[in-house]
């Protein structure tokens, strides 16, 4: 029994045995197993049994921080995001930070890209290295992207730092470990154990739910090597029986979930697990039956808290969610498609260097003058491109004036708009996101507006350069934030300038680099209404009835509709998933994503697959049951 008289879970008892023995541990459990519940029990017992020890708990969102803090009140518990935790460990060692940061920037293969910042030995002399929401390397300001790299280098070079952290936190627990950056795992499992101080590091999570790029995914190598002891948690507290039985069929790692023994678990009713429903609908031919299915279900899709439609592609969502123009810029610009056509011709018949002193328009004319059939075809826009140029003559004119070297290198891709890297309100501007620097900058503005409107003033002040020392400044700040809200139908360029002039969000290195290096895209984006950026921000934050399949891990809804359509995205293949064929990495990636989607449901799960193969339909009948597979 713990301090409050609650019975400890058997898995928690095993974990505490490893803690007492000084072993690093991993609590792995499937979706809905209640890993956070176990985490809270472990923290409570460590604090109770070790009256002087402090515990650090690392999470990945501010929401998770607040949830854990609301369950445990202790001055000896530190709960924070990974970035704040690492900065708290290294931020006071300024001399070492200056040295390491310079080394990382000046190396032949720099681990932190300097961009347009001039790298000289004395660049950080007399300057303090600060961690902010933006990056100004010349002034010693780093952002999310640099903190993890910098921390790993610090812990590798300075053994004393390991002892200091262990003295401060004998116990370090990591929530959702599979989403951890590899460098963080190196700090915790490679460098920290070299300390002369004793301590335990614990991990909570599920490798099957590793669906984001550039994360560690699994620490099985450490388990196999005996450096981390694994405890498996196989109960399910969230999903009804039919959903977690389906999920069991999708797993390949030996974890088979069963109903929770806790009669008070959300998926229990009167001591019996709820059945729930699972259905698989499909259509054949060119006619998409998704609207028909929505009507058939009769769900209230406006109830965003309990009903969610999950798509892999954002394109179908954009018009309904109010950011169609932004999606068109990143995924429908025929000028960019024409540029790719020209680039392909040069790759196959010449070299880029031959044309790098010219503008894009001059390059096109030079290719036309070659006179060969291949050159003539490459320089001739397709009918779709011609229609686009006729509708947007200013865009092709702008492109023709662009220096070819910069224009050909400019990346324009929808992943930069709606990057499916794990993103939350607290992380929209960092964690290695692919999202383009311009979008990140505008999201910072929307984030601080949201914080102010929610009266989260302390968080607000940490995100801005605004200084409040008297009532007059407080009133001015209120007027500024309210004014931003009134600019919804104005070009976003006006909002960016206003926020910069009033120190709400300053234009930093990355913004200026974007403006310089991606002039064509910059000019297009500056003219888009601010409302579109607000809409996509709300969409990414899950405050609409739509979501991609990446954005809902950790969430749960009564009704879940999963739309299986890769939208041309070659990273995923749903037929490959059902058939068990194709490239292993693609199939495994799709398998994990499908698992996460299915396990969001607390009641009804519906899957829609347009044009599945015959083999896929057969597998669906095996997974969902023959009576639950329906052709529309």
Task: For the structure shown, list the relevant keywords.
632 residues, alpha/beta, six-stranded parallel beta sheet
Tally of strands: 18
Secondary structure class reads: alpha/beta
| Mean of all residue-level pLDDT scores | 88
Discrete helix count: 30
Radius of gyration: 27 Å
**Quick one: biggest sheet?**
6 strands, parallel
Task: State the end-to-end CA separation.
Answer: 53 Å
Strand order of the largest sheet: 3-2-6-7-1-8
What is the helical fraction, as a range of percent? 40-55%
Quaternary state reads single chain
Describe the structure.
By secondary structure, this protein is an alpha/beta fold. It has 30 helices and 18 strands. Strands 3-2-6-7-1-8 form a 6-stranded parallel beta sheet. The chain has a 6-stranded parallel beta sheet with strand order 15-14-16-17-13-18. Strands 4-5 form a two-stranded parallel ribbon. Helix 8 links the parallel strand 6 and strand 7. The longest helix is centred in the C-terminal third of the chain and has 17 residues, at 437-453. The protein is globular.
What's the layout of helices and strands?
Layout: H1 10-20, E1 25-29, H2 35-49, E2 55-59, H3 62-71, E3 77-81, H4 82-90, H5 94-106, E4 130-131, E5 141-142, H6 144-157, H7 159-168, E6 171-175, H8 182-191, E7 200-205, H9 220-224, E8 229-233, E9 235-236, H10 241-250, E10 258-259, E11 268-269, E12 272-273, E13 277-283, H11 290-297, E14 307-311, H12 318-321, H13 324-331, H14 334-349, H15 360-370, H16 373-379, H17 383-391, H18 393-400, H19 404-409, H20 414-417, H21 437-453, H22 457-463, H23 471-485, H24 492-501, H25 509-517, H26 519-526, H27 530-540, E15 546-548, E16 557-564, H28 574-579, H29 584-598, E17 601-610, H30 614-624, E18 629-631
Parallel strand pairs: 1-7, 1-8, 2-3, 2-6, 4-5, 6-7, 9-10, 13-17, 13-18, 14-15, 14-16, 16-17
Antiparallel strand pairs: 11-12
Helix pairs in contact: 1-2, 4-6, 6-7, 6-8, 10-29, 14-16, 14-17, 15-16, 17-18, 21-22, 25-26
